[in-house]
Structures are given as C-alpha cells and as structure tokens.
Amino acid sequence: MSGPGQAHVELLERLVPDHRVRKDDKPAGGRAFIFVMAGLAVIIGLVCGMGFSAWVGGVLQRAAFAEEGVPVRATVLETNDTQVKVEYLTPRSGRVVTWVDGEYRPDPERIVPVLYLSGDHTVAQLADRAPWPGWPLLLGSPVLFAVLYSLHHRLGFRAGWFVRRFRVHAQGPPERPRRLVPLLVTAVVLVVLAAVPVVALLRSDRTEVLARETYWTLIPVPPLLFCALIALIRVAYRYAEDRPVTRFLRPFRLLPAGVVRATPALLMAVGLAAVIRLEFPEPMARPVRGTAEVLGVGSNSREVELEIRYEVDGVVHRRFVEVGDSLGEGLLVDDTVDIVWDADDPGDVRVR
Q: How far apart are alpha carbons 155 and 152 in whole angstroms?
C-alpha cells in the first residue's frame, strides 16, 4: 500500500481542530457515542415519524377515494380546526353523521360535496379536499441535508472515517480488535422491529386502516431505523479504529464554512417567519361581532388558551384561541366571551 499523498495531509490538517488525532488522544467511547446520538435520533425520528405517518395516511386516502369514493351532498353540522361534522344519507346505511377532513367554506344552505367509501360509509372526506403536497419536500429535505452533512461536513461520517483510518496508519491497530457482532445484531433487531408495523399495515384492509387511522402506528419506524443507522455507524467507526489500513479513503471536498453557518440562520429565519405569521395574523376583511361559550380554560407561561363554541348561520364552530392574561384571568367553563370572526371565514375567530 502506498502512503498518503499531499492531498490527504492537507485534508487532515483541516480536520485536526475537530477530531482527536494526536498520539495520546483516544476516540470517544462507544457508549457515549451511542447514547448521545441515539437520543438525538429518537427525537428527530419521532418528528419525522409523525410526518411520515401523515404522508402515508394521505396517500392511502387519495388512492381509496379515487377508486371507491361515492359522491353525496352533505349538511354541515359543526366544525373544528381541522375537521367538519356532516350528515348525509346513503342507500345502505341511511342517515350517517361523521367527521370528515377538510376546511369548510361558508354556504347559505350549509351543503358541501362529500365522498364516502363504499366499504365503510362513515369514512368520508370533503370532495374538494386535496392532501398537502409538501410532505415529500418536508420529509426529503432533512434526509438530503443529513446525507450532504455526513459526506462533506468536517464532523460528518466520512471525515470521522478518514481521521480514524489515518490514526491507525500512524499509530498502528490495537492488539485486540473489538467485536462488531453485538452492534450488528442490535441494528438487525431494530430494523426488524421497524418492519413490524409496516408489514402489519401492508397486510391490513385499506378501508379499515383509514377508519381506525392505524397508519399512525408507523410513527416508531423512523426512530427505530435512525437508531439502527447509529449502530451501523458505530460498527463502521469501530472497524476503522481497530483494523489495519490497506487502502486510504480518497480525499474529498468539505462544505464551505459559509454554507454551514448559513443553514442554521436560514432555519431560524423560516421559524421566525412562521412565528410572526401566527402572532400577527392578517386583519379580517369583513369582521362580525358575536359571543362564544367557553368550553375549556388552559394556560401556559405567556398566555391563556380558551376552547370556545359559537354558532354562525346554523353551523357550530369549536376553536382554540389564545388570549392575554388580562383577558383570560377569571374566566371559567360555561362563561361567555365577546368574539369577532371573519364573515368570509367564520373559523377565523379572535377574542375581543
């Protein structure tokens, strides 16, 4: 094997400040690596799991209603933040009252077009409802960023492998290599556990899955797969730290420092824009004054959250609204509060 070239040395010099490469340094302990990274993987995985489950549910709904959706005109009874309670008639089940996903647009006759499944007449959705198209981008962006980070960041997987193999080349491998089998078995077990809800969902009836919303059982899949990936990364690092070097990794380009610094700033800007949109909503085009019944009172460190019930043109609306401590202080369940809603969108409501 030929020794490292000048390109290897230059890359190593750029990685030295972030990696332990001196003679007396030792790699981070395997347990510390796994516990820290596994904790991070679980937190990120749960967030991805909720998004993944929602996306799968949307895909199943789109396919089911496209293939066996039966159109019907329904009467709107009630709405909340994400659903509409409707009533309609079917030839087999007669009168059906159920909650459907979608947003209600005010109609003088309170009539909306609905699709229900022929296999279960209580599973329905508004006919004009379209699943949110942003799930692939929302779920795929973190994965692409993680791959880019692991391959080209100075703290990524490839940089860690490069430094470890260079250390072994300079200091020699240990006399007794550590075992890889336990970590490999752990990774396999985690993958099998992740496959259980997937297989169960694939073997279930699609209508039953939608009726019971069992696609939410997929939430643990990403955390389990992320933890399995962490175990496999530790296997690779342990191999890189303990086995003789027979071939050097080809030098690679690191991400520019500006890109690395700009990513958190971009994420913070997106988050700030979302907060500003929530905290400072657009003014109502046609405000209408009224009153609402308080169904529940909660509080956090900054504001009081009210669950209110009010009626507009024969349709009952239930919403959660946040008010300042001065407005919410002393309110109890069954109290009445003054509200204002938008005539074009009665679901847009605020406490006066």
A: 8
Q: Identify the sign of the CA torsion 72, 122, 100, 133.
A: negative
DSSP state of 79: E
**Token representation of residue 327:** 């407005």
Taking only the tens place, the pLDDT of each residue in 210-241 is 888 899 999 999 999 999 998 898 899 888 88
Phi, psi of 110 (to 5 degrees): 60, 35
Q: How many angstroms separate the CA atoms of 36 and 253, rounded?
A: 27
**Count of residues making up the chain:** 352
119, 207 Cβ separation under 8 angstroms: yes
Residue 23 has pLDDT above 50, yes or no: no
- State the amino acid at position 177 in one-letter form: P
State how far the Cα of 58 lies from the Cα of 69, in Å rounded to an integer. Answer: 15
Distance between CA 308 and CA 192 in Å, rounded? Answer: 45
What is the spatial distance between Cα 312 and Cα 349, in angstroms, rounded to a whole number? 11
Residue 95 has pLDDT above 80, yes or no: yes
Cβ atoms of 191 and 225 within 8 Å: the answer is yes
The residue-averaged pLDDT of 87-101 equals 88
Structural contact between residues 114 and 124, judged by C-beta atoms closer than 8 angstroms: yes
DSSP-derived secondary structure for 127-143: TT----TTHHHHHHHHH
* Integer Cα distance of 288 and 181 in angstroms: 68
* Torsion sign, CA atoms 89, 92, 97, 101: negative
Task: For 267-319, write each residue's pLDDT tens digit.
Answer: 677 667 666 665 566 777 788 899 888 888 887 666 778 888 999 888 899 98
Say if residue 129's pLDDT is above 80: no
